[in-house]
Structures are given as C-alpha cells and as structure tokens.
Design brief:
alpha+beta, 4-stranded antiparallel sheet, globular
C-alpha cells in the first residue's frame, strides 16, 4: 500500500488552535536551547580548554572546542566549515519550522523535530558566538573515549531516534 505523504495513516489529533498549534513545540525547542546554552556558559566559566573533571568511573566533565561537525568532521579545515555548518543549521531550522507548522498534531514526530530544532540552534549559537561548538560530556570505557558532546547534540540524537521510532510505528500501523 503506497503512502500518501507525511500524514498518511496518522490520526489528526492536534491542538486545534489554528496557526498557534505548533507553538508548544517551539517552546520545547526553546527549553532545549536554554538548557544547552546555560550548561555551556557554566563550562566556559569554570573550565579552561582541555580541563577534565572525573565524575564517575566512566564519565568526565571536560571542555572541548569542536570546530567541525559530529565527531569533529572537518574540524581542521581552515575555518570555512564554521559558516557551512551555520548555514546548514539555519536551513534545517527553516525546514523543521515548516514541518512543525504542517504537522503539529503528530506528537512523536513534532517532539522529534522540536528536539532537533533546539539542538541545531543551540550549536548554531555557539558557532556564531565563538566560532566553535562547546562540548563537555565525556563518556569512556578504560582508555576508549566516545567523542565529547553537549546537550544540543543529545537533543539532536534523541530527536533522530524519535523520528525513526515514529516512522517504524507509522509503517506498522499501515499494515
């Protein structure tokens, strides 16, 4: 059975307040941005670049500057990547806002998009203010460290997981 777009097979339960029905999702994005930026201000205020503070046997708070994207992709490319990733983040934000306005009643889908939006804009703010993204969460096992990340990255990851779950549930309902 062919799908007829994003809303196919979905319940149309929305907040039914017209054009403002997507605003609660923007509010969630704003919460993500505020928590992300607050934690980054704390890290910038209390840690020097490269500092590390053990919290548990598998987790440190650190201060790392990521000039690239995920896993420091293009981090040492001379600076042009700052503007590329800023542009991608802003473009993604415009697309996500349009999708949120189009599908505010699809709760898991909208939550996923709003989480990604908040995370993307949190990292865009860093790039505009500092020229890099502030990362500070360092998980490790023995000598292996997962690349440091931040609250914005966590929100983007949560949003991506929720998008996959939303699609799997949509396909399952379509059977």
């Amino acid at each position: 059975m062919a799908s007829k777009g994003r809303g196919a097979g979905r319940s149309n339960m929305s907040f039914k307040s017209g054009s403002s029905s997507w605003l609660p999702w923007l509010a969630w994005s704003l919460v993500v941005i505020l928590v992300d930026q607050f934690t980054k201000v704390l890290v910038l205020g209390y840690y020097q670049l490269g500092d590390s503070h053990p919290v548990t046997s598998f987790f440190n708070l650190v201060r790392v500057h990521n000039h690239g994207a995920a896993f420091s992709f293009l981090a040492s490319s001379g600076g042009w990547q700052r503007w590329l990733f800023t542009g991608i983040g802003i473009g993604a934000a415009v697309l996500i806002i349009w999708l949120l306005k189009s599908h505010p009643g699809q709760k898991l889908f909208a939550f996923a998009l709003a989480s990604i939006l908040g995370g993307a804009l949190g990292n865009v703010i860093d790039r505009l203010l500092h020229g890099y993204v502030v990362d500070f969460l360092d998980f490790y096992w023995k000598n292996w460290h997962f690349p440091a990340f931040n609250i914005a990255d966590s929100a983007i990851t949560l949003g991506a997981i929720c998008l996959i779950l939303d699609e799997l549930l949509r396909v399952r309902r379509g059977r």
